[in-house]
Every structure is written in C-alpha cells, then in structure tokens.
Amino acid sequence: MTPHGTLYLLPVPLSEAPEALLTLSPRLLDRFRQLSFFVVETPKTARRLLKQIDHPLPIAQLTLSPLTRETPTTQLESLLAPLRQGQGLGLLSDAGCPAIADPGARLVNAAHAAGFRVVPETGPSSLLLGLMASGLEGQRFTFHGYLPAPEIARNARLVELEKRSWAVQETQAFIETPYRNEALFASLCRTLHATTQLCVARDLTGPREWIRTAPVSEWQRHPHPDLHHFPTLFLFLARAPGRGE
Predict the structure, then answer these.
(1) Which site among 41, 82, 125, 148 is 20 to 30 Å from 190 CA-CA?
(2) Torsion of CA 202, 205, 208, 210, to 10 degrees
(3) How far is the C-alpha of 236 from the C-alpha of 27, rounded, in Å?
(4) pLDDT in tens, 34-56
(5) Kind of pairing between the strands at 6-9 and 89-92
(6) What is the pLDDT of residues 69-97, one digit of tens each?
(7) b vs e for 47-73, b when ≥16 Cβ sit within 10 Å of the residue's Cβ?
(8) How far apart are CA 214 and CA 228, in angstroms?
(9) Mean pLDDT for the chain?
(10) Residue-wise over 175-194: b if at least 16 C-beta within 10 A, else e?
(11) Distance (Å, rounded) from C-alpha 43 to C-alpha 49?
C-alpha cells in the first residue's frame, strides 16, 4: 500500500514586523518545525520566516517548492510528491492564510482529488480580523479578492457590488496591491453612496494597525488615511432603509 502524507495549511504573519510572530500559536510553530517539505508562494519570504521561528533543520536542508498563479497545472502533481512518500507537506502564502486570495487553493484542490488528507491550521487571517473589527454584517459577506485595476472597470465593479450589498444586506470585502491602495480608496469615496458604511483596515496585527468604519460622506470630509505600501482590507455595507443611516 502506498503511504500517504498530510497536506498542512499553515498561516503566516500578516506583517513583517518581528512582533507579528506572536500571532502564531505554539501549536502552529510546532507544526512548522516538524516539516521538511513546503510549497510556498515566494521562497525568499518563506526562508526568512523559517529562520525567524528557529526551524531545527538548516534552511538549506528544507525543500521549498514555489507555487504561483503562473505555475502550470501539470506541475501540481510533482508538488504533491512528498505526500506520496508518506511525508507531511506544508503550504504557505506570503501573508496570512494559504489558499485565500492565493494560488495555494489549486494545490489544495489537487490534494483532495488525489485522496490526500488536508489539515488547516489556525492563524491570522486579514479577512476575518477585518470583518470582526468592522462592525458590518458578519453573517452575510463576500470576499472578492482583487478588483479590476483599470479605473473604469473598477468603478463599474464597485457600483455592481454596492447594488448587491443594498439588495441582500451583505458586506463586500476586497484587497488591493499595496501601491494601488490609495487609487482604490479614492474610487470608493467617489463611487459609493454617501450613506454606505466603509471600513478601512490597515496593517492588521502590524505596528501601524489602523481600523475605522464610517459613512462614505464622512470619509469624504476628512483627510485620507495613509495607505501607501500598507497591506489593507476594504469592506463596505450599503444601508437599506430603516438600517442605520
């Protein structure tokens, strides 16, 4: 009988600040240290983390296989090779939980299709932390990942999502590449209705963490927050008549 290993989904810190390591539980750190095989989004980022958590093996002895959006589907089988040898395999994103707005979801799907055991470990998630802190609807929400980058397409998508939010009272959540945060924030303030509740959650668990929820009309009246180069989660909820403003 061919031995089967387990695919472990390993959350990593949301911030590069040293204190962000405190968001990783002892159980999660133990899991990291027990594994020798990893599939990672960026090997350089993964090596830095494994050094920071004092992995007992020399980094050169660990196998770090990259998985990006450009990785051909035909290569997924080879990435699962340690599992067929009965080894444990860790899946890492660059930040937060793997397989959420992350190419790792493809590997998880392939592992299920091949019959391997998949174990999600608990750890920091910008989506859940931001939703918790937003005060918006937490029972009905949709995470859209990234919105279109071109301004016209982005604004059209925001109009569409606001209509959806209004119709079913559902929080809409999304992220952006940090250097485009300010362009997205400007689009939100220009495009959304004045009474729509908008939450900006910047640098979650990091030293510059900042979270605020307010109507779009209030965001328009005050200086914009500094979002340049900070990982940021955006959420909004369009208020129906009789619910809030």
Answers:
(1) 125
(2) 40
(3) 34
(4) 999 999 999 999 999 999 999 99
(5) parallel
(6) 999 999 999 999 999 999 999 999 999 99
(7) bebbeeeebeeeeeebebbbbeeebee
(8) 20
(9) 94
(10) bbeeebbbebbebbeebbee
(11) 10
Contact 112, 4 (CB under 8 A): no
Where do we find the tokens 């939450």?
199
The pairing of beta strand 63-66 with beta strand 37-40 = parallel
Model confidence band, residue 4 (pLDDT cutoffs 50, 70, 90): confident
CA 176 to each of CA 16, 227, 243: distance values in angstroms, whole numbers, following the listed order: 18, 11, 29
Say yes or no to pLDDT of 2 above 60: no
Residue tagged 């979270």 (tokens): 211
Structure tokens at 60: 């050169």
* Paired residues of 64 in beta bridges: 38
Between CA 56 and CA 32 the distance in angstroms is 10
Judged against a pLDDT cut of 70, whether residue 180 lies above it is answered with yes
Which residues, 6 or more positions from 244, have their beta carbon under 8 angstroms from its beta carbon? 195, 197
CA distance 117 to 110: 11
